[in-house]
Amino acid sequence: MKLSLFDYDLPRELIAQYPNRRRDQSRLMVLNRATGQISHRKFRHIVEYLRRGDALVVNNTKVFKARLIGKRATGGQVEVFLVRRLDGVSGEFWETLAQPSRRLKEGERIFFGDEYGIDLIQNLGDGRWQVSFDSVTVRKKVIAQFGHVPLPQYIAREDQPADLHRYQTVFARAEQAGAVAAPTAGFHLTRGLLSKIRSMGVIVCEVTLHVGPGTFKPITADNIEEHTVDPEFAQISQSAADTLNAVRARGGRIFAVGTTSVRTLESAPLENGEILAFSGMVDTYLRPGHRFRCVDHLITNFHLPRSSLLVLVSAFAGREQILDAYAEAIRERYRFYSYGDAMLML
Fold first, then answer.
1. What is the mean pLDDT of residues 133-148?
2. How many domains does one find in the chain?
């Protein structure tokens, strides 16, 4: 399919620069995929679409302050964006994105204050570098003192103290601090709303996908089939797999919160129709024609034009129906992207 089929025009003022004052006060567009009917609600009304025995699947990854601002020996500023720790290598070696990449040199040291630094080990191409921290302790101190919340580029401001809390879900787990971008559909859920959902007999089930910078990687090929997505670490525990299989066996429905939960679920191996636990890197790219095996309903935000995430939701609900819904959202002045409003696809 042509990439141009997944385009739309968005007024810049509809790109949310700050989150809603209250998470569950965001707006919620509800799209019925079977009828095409659209209704406009508040996110707190999500409870009206859930019923006892359903499962609400959330991504419990935690965003860390992955954007580091340091200096070269010459005094020039360098941005080092931590992508992931390199496994299978002793020491604190990381894959990063570094700017201005063309000026940097292998063997160069980037300084953070007077005490700390990292070494540029290898130029991996396309702005990617392998770097080394002196130790785990140094890495933690550099992140704590010099790290910034990795807000997307379309949020045209520097991060602020409030972003430490708001560019994070309330169910993010400290031991899962591996994401450099947030699973933003989960922003709308509060602890109180989750408590109410559980009290209804709905199971809140956690999976993990450490969202990487590739989530913002634009599709540049003319045909979407030629695009690839960057690998990300995903995990479904045995407990989560057992829970989801029990829900499905009882006739319950699976509501995925966010495209990251969808990618995790749809990456899971199946055996005799049952979801199996797994842990590893996934590069699942969901396009129109994909038959969804594990997801019945999808809660998500509004996505960028010409993006793999817009392609994903088009695969779930139909391209024309999605673009019609987006046009309606623009007319109704919904707020778009990470800090924006939400959409429920039934």
1. 95
2. 2
